[in-house]
Amino acid sequence: MQTYFLAMELGLPALLLAIALAGAGLHRGGYSRLLDWKPTRSPQREVELELGELDQMLSAQNRYRRERGLPARSLEDVSQQAWANYNLYGEMLSPPDDRRNDQ
Length: 103
Prior knowledge:
Blueprint: H1 2-26, H2 31-35, H3 43-67, H4 75-93, H5 99-102
């Protein structure tokens, strides 16, 4: 009785997995066609949504800056500061220059 139970608990799932893997190996089409997968949004729409979110975040930040009496920032200002911070962070992580130690 225990062998039957063990065969059903381990053998049946292993058999189903083997059948699924064999079917996937024999399938000639692409996985998107097999699953009938279609993207929900186009890449162009994703870019439009991302730009809209950036505009919303920048306008909210500028509203808070005006409340504190600071000037508004443009997207170029924010990008320029982000690249400066990125470059500074990269310089901090880079190993020290060995040429300075030789002199």
